[in-house]
Amino acid sequence: MLSFPRIVASAAGIGVILSAGTGHAQTANSGASDSTLEEVVVTAERRTEDLQKTAASVTVRSGDDLQREGRFSLQQILEDVPGAAGGASAGFVGTGSDTPANGVTIRGISSNQAGRGSITSMVPATAIYTDGVVSGIGGDYDIDRVEVLRGPQGTLYGRSATAGVIAEHTRDPQLATFGGDAAIEVGNYDLHHYTGALNVPAGDQLAFRFSGNSYSRDGYYLPQGAAQWVQEGRVKMLYQPSENFRALLGVAVQDNHTRTGQGTGELTAPDTVVYVMNNPVDAGTNTFRQYWAQFDWNLGATTLTYLPALRTWVQNALVLDSYPAVITQVAQTPHDQFNTHELRLASNGDTALKWQTGVFYYDNELRSYNDVYNGIDPSNQTTGFVIDLKNRSTVNIGLFAESTYSFTQALRLTTGLRYDDTTVKTNEGYTDRTGPAPVFIPLTANTDKRTFKNWTYKLRLEGNLTDANLLYGSISTGVLPGDVQIIPTTPGVLEVTTLKAETLTSFEIGSKNRFFGDRLQINGDVFYYRYGGFQNPGTVILVGSTPIFANLNSGAEMRGTELEVQYRPTRADHM
Predict the structure, then answer these.
(1) How far from chain centre, in Å, is Cα 298?
(2) pTM value?
(3) Pick from 440, 444, 439, 441: which is nearest to 429 by CA?
(4) DSSP letters spanning 184-246
(5) Which residues does 285 contact at the CB level (< 8 Å), separation at least 6?
(6) 197 has which bridge partners?
């Protein structure tokens, strides 16, 4: 039976054969000359504006350019983005992650590590939004553009936007346009990658877009033990009965398959690792399902936007670690559900005062199971190490407002404020083997609940020296709301530990410039950060010969500068 993503990809391929036209969303100004740089339209600050007139450190990569260059994964997309690195987190070896943003670092700010023994994700330091959905899926195929916002974006984006935001925009359905595209990538290590999309109009007010992605390859050193396979697909429906109302509905799926085992890598000499292929191979799966919508009503003086989303994640992984002896880990997440709602009201028109305000709701319910034991026989629990059962819930409500006032056509002031209320509850059942004898001690711990209340703000002054030269200075903050971890410390002891909220305060001065008739673009900035601290819960510290467990919290200061230059000397050359 063909899977949903393969059906979508096949339909997209047929569409390409039947039609030579394409229906891509355009980010370039159609009136620009072929020999000048494009004017890129972004929504980095939740309103549509020219990138060169956005007073923030934003880098944009268009989907057309990424596809031509063969860059599909988040790690590849971020390769040439100043100050950003990493990619989607894949969890522990052989397991998955419900929060891909944990693998991203922006301007040196990375996510905290989870408590020892935990298979659940921490709150990430970078927020990834895919089509407006927090930690959404499907941002690596059928891409319209990717916007990378560096620096804290707490006012408009809230939780996890401490280091910055990666806003992935996939292509929306286009009315009255039939077309599609496809790409095929093959390589060594049995790499096979197929992606495609098909745009289908259904009258003047309705259109659908089908897209799919399939990726598989063997492992680099353990061909079967590190093999990967991903299949995903998406359907979007656009309904636009008038200029004043627009409804976009979407469904996305993602199935991830990983393998572990097969062999062991042993260091036999400096710079020499020998892999011995003498162990069994096992597999793990994790699946995402996502349902979301965006409704936009133009009410004349204002626009009302409502964004509901439901995302689920289920994991069932069997991980084999075969050095020095075979150790098996059963990592299961039978329930992990994210429910978000955002209601936003924004001003319309080119008035002196532009504003937006809204409310954001986030609810996550999670259950996980982690069983680690010797050997490969799950029935022989007498040789086990730990059995960990965890239940966790997180509820966040955020209220925000931001405004920009133009004193003159050349001078503007932006102010923003946000309040977040976050409640975390967690309980854990833990079985720990103590001593050399196979004696198990069952433990339980319950946090009751922890509540964190956080404020973030933004203050920015910007001015146009000329129509093609922008100068700005800003002070802004982002915050990780705080968290709770239950950590096994000494044998027979579970410790409930509270992680403090972490605030990042940024001071930044930047400039955006066009020269030589829009052929040369130079954007740059300097920044100074004060960060509340990287935290690592349950770290082992030796006091003399006695081990104790503590939360490490290390504050930080960062100073940096970034520079981006584009030059188009002729119509055929772009540097």
Answers:
(1) 30
(2) 0.89
(3) 444
(4) EEEETTTEEEEEEEEEEE-SSSEEEEEEEEEEEE--SSSTTTT-EEEEEEEEEEEEEEETTEE
(5) 255, 256, 257, 258, 315, 316, 317
(6) 181, 211
- 195 vs 437, which has greater pLDDT? 195
In terms of phi and psi (left: phi > 0; alpha: psi -120 to 50; beta: otherwise), the region of 379 is: alpha
What SS3 state is found at 55? coil
Is the Cβ–Cβ distance between 394 and 378 less than 8 Å?
Answer: no
User: Does residue 201 have a cis peptide bond before it, meaning omega lies within 30 degrees of 0?
Assistant: no
pLDDT of residue 1: 41
How open is the CA angle 36-40-42, to the nearest 5 degrees? 170
- 121 φ/ψ angles, rounded to the nearest 5 degrees: -80, 150
| Burial of 416 from C-beta contacts in 10 A (0-12 / 13-18 / 19+) | buried
Q: What is the mean pLDDT of the chain?
A: 85
| Cα separation, 549 vs 546, whole angstroms | 10
Q: What is the DSSP string of 182-200?
A: EEEEEETTTEEEEEEEEEE
Going by pLDDT thresholds of 50, 70 and 90, the confidence category of residue 442 is confident
Q: What are phi and psi of 10, to 5 degrees?
A: -65, -45
What contacts 237, CB < 8 A, 6 or more positions away? 173, 206, 207, 208, 248, 249, 250
Q: Identify which of 294, 344, 412, 406 has the alpha carbon closest to the alpha carbon of residue 47.
A: 344
Q: End-to-end CA distance of the chain, in Å?
A: 47
Q: How far apart are CA 421 and CA 435, in angstroms?
A: 43
CA 15, chain centre distance (Å): 30
